[in-house]
Design brief:
single chain; 236 residues; alpha/beta; Metallo-beta-lactamase, Chain A; seven-stranded mixed sheet; 5 helices; globular; binds zinc ion
Length: 236
């Protein structure tokens, strides 16, 4: 029996640290039952990858404060997919432009009701994003001042899930899930699509893999390579 070596996980002290440093300008803010948001500090403020399941985004705002930033300093938010724990905090940042893959937009804006993960029982009352949401094309680079993000459509967990590459850090949302010290591919929407998506990610060069639930793993490329031939990682 071999399970992927999760010794590469970066261990944070969740009780002590409101903000966890992944790279000199990349941070994680995480709160139990509220989910995760990744903060990238840029020249004029910050960019977020997802905004947690808290409509007030309290933990993110607290984390921003620790790096001397305010909610209005958030310029861009990229949602990996429409689920409640990714998008609820979108409207807590008044000056932020919101981005997502086109298929997710009606779910994020509340126009359509999407299937949610059962662990988040309060999704029935989930706040939706009132601001307009901008579409992201596949296999493109988005630049903003000194910031550059590479966008890859990675359906599987949901139909319009996207992954984002920033320097040597890849954010995959819930395409890859983590449970009981094991990583595996999500089949929440479609397992074949998830497998195709993971194969697409194999060509990228990166070190850190940041999952939608706040788990951060080193040797990200090896994990992607492993999952592309062992999608049910935990069953190996
Ligand atoms: Zn999800």
């Amino acid at each position: 029996m071999s399970i992927y070596p999760l010794k590469y996980e970066i261990i944070f002290d969740q009780q002590k640290d409101i903000i966890k440093k992944i790279a000199p300008n990349v941070f994680l803010s995480w709160q139990q039952k509220k989910g995760a948001s990744y903060i990238i500090k840029i020249h004029s403020g910050a960019v977020l990858i997802d905004s947690t399941g808290d409509s007030a985004a309290k933990i993110v705002i607290e984390a921003l404060k620790q790096i001397n930033l305010r909610p209005k300093d958030v310029k861009l938010i990229f949602n990996t997919h429409y689920h409640f724990e990714q998008i609820a905090g979108n409207d807590a940042f008044p000056d932020a432009r919101i981005y997502a893959q086109q298929k997710e937009i009606p779910f994020i804006s509340g126009e359509k009701k999407g299937k949610q993960k059962p662990s988040f029982g309060n999704f029935i009352f989930a706040p939706y994003t009132k601001k307009s949401i901008n579409d992201l094309l596949d296999n493109t680079k988005l630049t903003f001042e000194d910031f550059c993000l590479y966008i890859i459509h990675t359906p599987g967990h949901t139909e319009g899930s996207a992954s984002y590459l920033y320097n040597d850090i890849l954010f995959t949302g819930d395409l890859i899930e983590y449970k009981e010290n094991k990583v595996f591919l999500s089949s929440f929407w479609d397992s074949h699509s998830a497998l195709d998506s993971i194969k697409r990610l194999q060509v990228l060069d990166f070190e850190y893999l940041c999952l939608g639930d706040g788990h951060v793993l080193r040797e990200g490329r090896n994990i992607i390579k492993y999952l592309s031939s062992h999608p049910h990682g935990h069953k190996v």
